[in-house]
Amino acid sequence: MKKFITAIAMLLFAGMAAMAQETTYDKSDFVPGDEIIFDDNFEGEKIGEFPLRWDLLDGYAETAQQQGRNVIAFTDNGLGQVMPLMTGDEEETTLDMSIYFGDRGDDSYYNASSYVRFWYREDGSCNLTWSLLKPDGDNQSNGEKMLGLSPGNSDYLEKDNPVVAGEWNHFAFSFNQRAFKGYVNGVRMINVPAMKAPGYLFFASGAFYRYTGLSNVRIAQGAVPLYDRLTNDGKIVSYAITFETGKADLKPESVIEINRVAKLMQEHPELEFEVQGHCDNTGTDAVNDPLSQQRAEAIVNALVKQGIAQSRLTPVGKGSHSPIAPNDTAEGRAKNRRVEFVKK
Question: What is the pTM assigned to this prediction?
Answer without folding.
Answer: 0.75
